[in-house]
Amino acid sequence: MKKMMKGFTLIELMIVVAIIGILAAIAIPNFVKFQARSKQSEAKANLKAMFTAQKAYSAEKDKFSNKVGEIGFSPERNNRYTYFVAPVAGGLTARTTATEVPTAGGVDTAVEYDAFKYGTAAPSAFVQGNLDADPTKLCTDTGPSAVKTPGVDAVAGAFWMGAAQGQIDNDVALDVWTISTANRSLTTCDTTGPNPGGEPANDYNDVNQSK
């Protein structure tokens, strides 16, 4: 006597596919956010390295510097973020080719994201000058260092602020971080409250933004 083999019905298969679709719809956005958060570790690590380089320069020269070459800051390649020791108007170390190209005369105040690896097509492109042109993405400090521009304090040179800006997901918004030698009390941004000197702050958290 032949034994009958039973299989799944079309309805059962459709139910399984629907369940998989629902689980994917829930899991994928959370995975994308988790992936973006992991990329932010680059900004935190490199800003701390920039802070250390700035403090070492200050200890030797008794002043802070607005130039990446003077403080000896050069992040590893494959960087998703552009790093500012001061506003980019001073010069930008380009990373559009296999070998980075500093501006002649050692005047660079920023190091470009690795455009050689990540390309220049939107939304990956770093918009040069955007950090200065859109200060709403930078925190306000209610203390003595109440500035929204990276660089050395123009009045007394008593403190310095560095910044990082990069693309970590698939929208047009850019992730922005800052670090300062001063103790700050931050407002009007995504990170608020006390911020000790040398601790990176996520001024504009791109993980939580849609544009």
Word description of this protein:
The structure is a single chain. This protein has helices spanning 10-61, 68-71, 115-118, 130-133; strands at 81-84, 92-93, 110-111, 140-141, 151-152, 160-166, 175-180, 184-187, 193-195, 201-204. With 211 residues, the chain is an alpha+beta fold. The protein has one domain (41-208). The chain is elongated and about 95 Å long. 33% of the residues are buried.
Give a quick precis of the structure:
With 211 residues, the protein is α+β, with helices and mostly antiparallel strands. It is 30% helix and 17% strand.
Please describe the topology of this protein.
Layout: H1 10-61, H2 68-71, E1 81-84, E2 92-93, E3 110-111, H3 115-118, H4 130-133, E4 140-141, E5 151-152, E6 160-166, E7 175-180, E8 184-187, E9 193-195, E10 201-204
Parallel strand pairs: 2-3
Antiparallel strand pairs: 1-3, 1-6, 4-8, 5-6, 6-7, 7-10, 8-9
Based on Cα principal axes, name the global outline.
elongated
Structural class: alpha+beta
Largest sheet: 7 strands, mixed
When the domains are counted, the total is 1
Q: Ends: how far apart?
A: 67 Å
Q: What's the helix count?
A: 4
Low-pLDDT stretches:
122-130
Share of β-strand residues: 15-25%
Query: What is the H-and-E element order?
Result: HHEEEHHEEEEEEE
Helix fraction, binned, reads: 25-40%
The whole-number mean of residue pLDDT values reads 82
Number of strands: 10
Radius of gyration: 23 Å
Oligomeric category? single chain
